[in-house]
Amino acid sequence: MNEEIEFILDTTKEAMTSAIAHLEKELRAIRAGKATPAMLANVMVDYYGSQTPLGQVANVTTPDPRTIAIQPWEKNMLQPIEKAIMIANLGFNPMNNGDIIMINVPPLTEERRIGLAKQAKAEAEHAKVGIRNARKDANNDIKKTDISDDLKKDSEAEVQKLTDSFVKIIEETLSVKEKEIMTV
């Protein structure tokens, strides 16, 4: 196969793989019953005037399946961390005891589970859009090459095969996450 085509296919595969990685990261942040530090991964804390991820200003642990403990590295960060958790609107009520912040993760209601499943579907749809954009870019790059029409058609078919396989991975990942969310 043409070197240029192989480069296009490799670039496309890389873009599609990164879409899957992004999806997995987003799905980890969607809670599914038990407490995990990943639930707070997107919380940004005002750390001396700049927005900083919570994991860079505190130690986040889960002492049991229903509790998240946040121990800031600086005591004066307790209030900003508490405020950031409230602003993130995750449905948590942080409790500050002067040393650490405790969050009791309530059991999910059926309504909340359905909402989280919809959120997971939306993330999967974003990943599919990323995959389709990578396919479109690859097909445009293939059309711009100076190769025979037969080779272009074969290359486009290869890109479609890649697209189909990555969309299948997204569907499987979503299915597992939905099952995890809906399991009581």
Care to describe what's here?
By secondary structure, the chain is of the alpha+beta class. It is built from four helices and six strands. It has helices spanning 3-29, 78-87, 110-144, 149-182, and strands at residues 44-47, 50-53, 58-64, 67-72, 95-96, 101-104. The strands form two sheets. Strands 3-4-6-5 form a four-stranded antiparallel β-sheet, covered by helices on one side. A two-stranded antiparallel ribbon has the order 1-2. A hairpin with a 2-residue loop joins strand 3 and strand 4. The relative contact order is 0.18.
| Largest β-sheet summary | 4 strands, antiparallel
The percentage helix is: 55-70%
Q: Report the portion of residues in β strands.
A: 5-15%
Secondary-structure content class? alpha+beta
Run of helices and strands: HEEEEHEEHH
Short description:
Helices cover 58% and strands 15% of the residues.
Task: Give the helices and strands, then pairings.
Elements: H1 3-29, E1 44-47, E2 50-53, E3 58-64, E4 67-72, H2 78-87, E5 95-96, E6 101-104, H3 110-144, H4 149-182
Antiparallel strand pairs: 1-2, 3-4, 4-6, 5-6
Helix pairs in contact: 1-3, 1-4, 3-4
